[in-house]
Design goal:
The complex is a heterodimer of chains A (190) and B (260). Helix content of chain A is 22%, strand content 40%. Chain A has 190 residues and is of the alpha+beta class. Chain A has two domains: 31 residues; 152 residues, Immunoglobulin-like. Chain A has a five-stranded mixed β-sheet, with no helix packed on it. In chain A, strand 2 and strand 3 form a beta hairpin. The radius of gyration of chain A is 23 Å and the shape is extended. The termini of chain A are far apart. Chain B is mainly alpha-helical and 260 residues long. Chain B has one domain. Helix content of chain B is 71%, strand content 0%. About 6% of the residues of chain B have low confidence. Classes of the chains: A alpha+beta (190), B mainly alpha (260). Chains A and B meet through helix 1 and helix 4 of A and loops of B.
Chain lengths: 190, 260
């Protein structure tokens, strides 16, 4: 057998090994699962059933006690408060953290505001977690803030359009929950 | 054409630069594997921040798509190396053999193809080596680790939905640009028989475009590169340029000494 044939065989084997390795790296556990939920649909996260009760769009108002209590913010600050009803369906005490709750509108997205979250939810004991006994129910208000500026070129002004649908996302990896809230960025029902 | 191409590709400098680039590329793959392992450990830990961490993906690890500044440095290095090496060979050629205009197109094409493959092989090897260890998980904007996916970046919509298409397109476009840049020293060498000018002009052009990239957010050479740490990139491009010019001068001196 000539050297060329050996080279071809070695190349074919290497290619096979490459394909096998790449497919094994990309298979199964490394891929994430995305669950989508329609407006009003219940979803389960860490054994806790959640349901979106109310979405409040709140513009900044310096005369409002809420804004003054929370923090000094610019006049163009806009808040989206998502009220959620939760129930622990586990048979044991469960801790739930809210660090991975995101809100997105079109191309804009943001984490929930931890400081405000602790302030407006007395149920939060330590850090950003709540503890729920088996079968316990709780109402939690999750705050998100958008900081607009007067600059028309501000990317935030551009990325949120009136048609942008509001989506609450929970977790990033390995499971992501997308909860469509059924309203647009103006607070109108889609 | 075949002969001209063989002349460039089989030259010691071309082979050494190609091997050197692959070695650097593998070092970058190694650093990405370490980052990936750290992230996997963090995701598996019971820490409450664990579910905010997104694993390392192929699409934010490969050359040109990483937030890691080293990747951009390498990219510019490839560009400069490609230009200087091809220019170097052809300048010597025009000086010694007096290039005839009849072979102009053939030589130019050979220079372009060699420059193209220098970049394309590096990109492909880096991509394949990375894909052996890091999974191709789709980009997630909310993780803040995929800068190409941000609003306002060129082709961000394609990147989010079909990252592999953008990756392949990017490599092709970048390789064509680098191939074209490689031909500048050759073109200059037809009229100017001065090695410093022939190799210096494209380097100055490259640095000029890098400077423009620094001024504008979108890099001109790597117009899809999402890196924002622009000042450091610019400094490194200049450092690369100085090092390469020094290598060039040393190489010249050695040839002159040998000719004597």
């Amino acid at each position: 057998m000539s050297i060329k044939k050996y080279i071809v065989i070695i190349c074919a084997l290497l290619l096979g090994a490459l394909v096998f390795r790449v497919s094994s790296v990309n298979s199964g556990s490394d891929q994430r699962i995305i669950h989508d939920y329609d407006p009003g649909e219940k979803f389960c996260y860490n054994g806790i059933t959640m349901n979106t009760e109310k979405i409040i769009f709140k513009e900044a108002d310096n005369s409002d006690v809420f804004w003054n209590t929370v923090r000094n913010r610019s006049d163009n600050t806009y808040a989206v408060m998502v009220e959620m009803k939760m129930m622990n369906e586990n048979n044991e005490k469960t801790y739930l953290d809210f660090s991975s709750f995101y809100l997105s509108m079109g191309y804009w997205f943001s984490n929930m505001d931890i400081e405000v979250f602790k302030l407006i939810n007395p149920i939060v004991k330590d850090n950003i977690r709540i503890c729920m006994e088996p079968g316990a129910e709780a109402d939690v208000m999750i705050p998100f803030f958008i900081y607009f500026s007067n600059d028309k070129e501000d990317p935030v002004n551009k990325v949120i359009t009136s048609e942008s649908e509001v989506v609450l996302s929970v977790g990033l990896y390995p499971v992501k929950y997308n909860i469509y809230l059924g309203i647009n960025s103006n607070g109108e029902i889609v | 054409m075949k002969m001209e191409l063989k002349k460039i590709v089989c030259s010691k400098v071309y082979v050494i630069s190609l091997v050197l680039l692959q070695v650097i590329s593998f070092l970058l793959v190694k650093s990405n594997i370490e980052i990936s392992n750290e992230k996997i450990m963090a995701i598996q830990s019971p820490d409450i921040w664990g579910n905010m961490i997104y694993p390392q993906s192929l699409y934010n690890s490969v050359l040109g798509f990483s937030e890691n500044i080293i990747f951009t440095e390498i990219l510019y290095s490839i560009m400069l190396l490609g230009m200087l090496l091809n220019g170097k060979l052809m300048v010597c050629d025009s000086k010694c053999d007096r290039v005839k205009y009849a072979f102009f197109n053939t030589k130019q094409l050979a220079v372009f193809v060699s420059g193209f493959f220098l970049a394309y092989i590096t990109f492909t090897v880096n991509c394949l080596a990375t894909s052996l260890f890091i999974p191709a998980i789709n980009p997630e904007v909310m993780s803040l680790e995929f800068p190409t996916a941000y609003y306002g970046k060129i082709c961000s919509a394609i990147y989010v939905k079909h990252p592999l298409i953008l990756l392949l397109l990017y490599y092709l476009v970048m390789s064509v640009i680098l191939g074209l840049v490689s031909t500048i020293p050759f073109l200059l060498s037809l009229k100017i028989h001065n090695i410093v000018i022939c190799n210096g002009v494209p380097v100055v052009t490259a640095v000029g475009i890098a400077w423009l990239s620094y001024q504008k957010n979108h890099a001109a050479f790597g117009f899809l590169i999402p890196v924002n740490l622009r000042l450091r990139t610019f400094v490194i491009v200049i450092a690369c340029m100085i090092i390469l010019i020094l290598i060039n001068i040393i190489f010249d001196l050695l040839i002159r000494r040998r000719n004597r």
